[in-house]
Specification:
The structure is a homodimer. In chain A, about 60% of the residues lie in helices and about 5% in strands. Chain A is mainly alpha-helical. Chain A has one domain: Four Helix Bundle (Hemerythrin (Met), subunit A), CATH 1.20.120.450. A two-stranded antiparallel ribbon of chain A has the order 1-2. In chain A, β1 and β2 form a beta hairpin. In chain A, α1 (about 10-30) packs antiparallel against α4, α1 packs parallel to α5 (about 120-145) and α3 packs parallel to α4 (about 80-100). At the A-B interface, α1 and α5 of A face α1 and α5 of B. Chains A, B: It holds the Pfam family DinB. Chains A, B: Belongs to the DinB family.
Chain lengths: ~160, ~160
């Protein structure tokens, strides 16, 4: 076994995640503004709220991991327009790039108590952020289909 | 930089995927049989068809990667009961364990032409299988909510 063999490196994981974030951004754009904030199925949250959950996780979590501080989970940001939501999304894109790149590969196997509640290895926390985004975005796809709107292709991750 | 540092190793990725597969199995179980095969929203496929796509990918793809053979994508398995679908799901669980463990860590960065169409590094192909499952399972969550059924918790991955 080559000691340098690895499933993927941290830069590849960042590119993977940002590819998903590109797709999520295009799903946000695909919603009519009123449906982004108002449409839902079966008592679920509208897509804007699902996106706000993603925004409350990614950047703040990475900042906390890099700085070693325990921040509480904060979902107080409450935009009322698609433009505001997209502006925040793009700000978080830069924050994620900045902080992700400061996590040395050695740290991914370390345990971190995220938001003072989720004590798992850092690689599991980061996979959770990506998985949670895919999960909720998949729900957004159903909302779009129910609205008669064709969602972006799932496999297209580039801008 | 420690040369042994890694984001995660292949066994951790397998555990991560099988955790997701446990959850997907519980989502299948949560559907009433007739809705599993018949219910959908916005012209989408019923959940059984989404699950059959997952079944057509995971095990066959790993077998192909390990054996170095190019198999065509085959979605011909067509069960009509939940029990048949779950039996096949559990068979694939064993196939995935068997073949995944035969992929040496060196190979994850190699390119493989999956199903003769998807020429990507093996780590990207495998992340795609997991992501595709999360995406479609998230859609299944909306179907369950629309049917008035509480889905399993997203963060519970153990049996």
């Amino acid at each position: 076994m080559n000691a340098n063999a690895k499933v993927l490196d941290s830069q590849q994981l960042l590119i993977h995640w940002q590819g998903h974030r590109n797709l999520t951004r295009r799903v946000i754009e695909a919603f009519p503004e009123k449906d982004l904030f108002g449409f839902s199925i079966g008592g679920m949250r509208p897509f804007s709220k699902l996106v706000l959950e993603m925004i409350a996780i990614g950047g703040p979590a990475l900042k906390s991991i890099v700085e070693g501080t325990i921040n509480t989970f904060d979902e107080s940001f409450n935009p009322t327009t698609k433009a505001e939501l997209l502006t925040k999304w793009d700000e978080e894109t830069e924050i994620i790039n900045e902080y992700f790149s400061q996590i040395t590969e050695e740290r991914f196997q370390e345990t971190f108590n995220l938001f003072g509640q989720y004590e798992f290895p850092i690689y599991q926390n980061i996979l959770y952020f990506v998985d949670n985004e895919i999960h909720h975005r998949g729900q957004g796809y159903v909302y779009l289909r129910a609205l008669g709107i064709e969602p972006p292709f799932f496999w297209e991750r580039e801008r």
